[in-house]
Amino acid sequence: MTSRTVEPPGAEPEYGSLVRDDRVHRTLYTEPSVFADEMERIFGRTWVYLGHESEIPEPHDFKLTNLGTRPVILSRDEEGTARAFFNRCSHRGVTVCNEARGNAPRFVCSYHGWTYSSAGDLLNVPFPSGMDDSFDPAEWGLHHLERVESYRGFVFGVLSAEAPPLAEHLGAAAALIDEWVDRAPDGEIVVRHGVRRVAARANWKLYLDGAADGLHPFATHRSFVEMSARHRDGLFISQFRRNPDETPMYSRVLGGGHQYLDQRPGMGGRVWDATRPAPGTEASVADLEQRYGSETTPEILERTTVAGMNVFVFPNLSLVDNSIGVVQPREVNRTEVLWHVTSLAGAEPESLPLRLRIGEDFPNFGDPDDIENWERAQRGLELVPDVEWLHTGRGDDGEEGADYGVTNEAPMRAYQREWLRLMQHRGGENP
Ligand code: FES
Ligand code: FE
Fold first, then answer.
1. What pLDDT, on the 0 to 100 scale, is given for residue 9?
2. Residue 79 — pLDDT band, cuts 50, 70, 90?
3. Which ligand has the shortest distance to the CA of 198?
4. Sheet with strand 147-151: strands edge to edge
5. CB of 91 closer than 6 angstroms to any ligand 1 atom
């Protein structure tokens, strides 16, 4: 057995010694103190995805979200500006909003009735004659996130005043978000179809490890791959039956911990042709052909289907097929991923049911496979402290922006370097 690398409890961990070129230490996934540092140094410092503008379209609309483990209200104020503040009463800390979403011009705390506006300002306290003159309501509003910015409808917040502008943080991921959103005839996506909540007894980074990993599908999703191939060779996910490095699919390191996997080149010329049949496909296609003709319908179907793009924006936003995934760390060994199927603004309404059904395809077959393996990994890492390292060294690292065969683990190593950069920074100013 090798000597243990981790410092005794209470010591500042040397994170640099835990992330190496071809391996990372198991405690990144198992140690509560590492998780606590992540909530401070990553989710407390870098831009975090909070929600989509279309989830709060009207004044006073709100939804609950999170910044790491911190509960946050994303709200549209009376003037129509998106605001984000902690869901934490300024009086004694109670969560002032306890509905997942809705429309409320006021947030009234259930404990002593302090009342806030949809902009988070403190409007009144009960029986104000009992308050001292020195009490200044302007000082006691709900605590705002330092900055809130949105890009193509995706709303992000950050706690650090010195963080770079959102567009700079997104870097090369911005053009891929554009490409994903520009499939919509009106250039906007819409998030309004509820949420599918996936829970795993596993560390949140297990999701990140797989965000651009083309190695695992042949094994993890084997039954899905085989089932698709039996149905028809070339159907979605059957492209992983052969060595995926010998297909034109590629992954890319985007910088800033962002990752990309483009499956489209492995799916043939038109993604629709590789789309698996969903309940109601034939009837929907017939209906569309009748309404829009056989010339226009293929175009409609092409944007109705899966996007074939996996874009991951560090640390918590995932665009996969037609859905937005939000990685939600809960505890060191507990994670939720919130999936929102999207629709396209300006798309033919008759195509929406088909889009939603297609959006359910991978989750039905693929999610249980992924979750099972994340949980098995978590068990192995927790229960066997004697073996300290995980191997992350497949393939070489190229320049930033380089493309890789999809079994290369370069995108994983790249996000781990960003993780390390943030975790090693202890000072007040932004890294
Ligand atoms: Fe909210 Fe007292 S804790 S009003
Ligand atoms: Fe998977």
1. 52
2. very high
3. 2
4. 48-52, 154-158, 147-151
5. yes
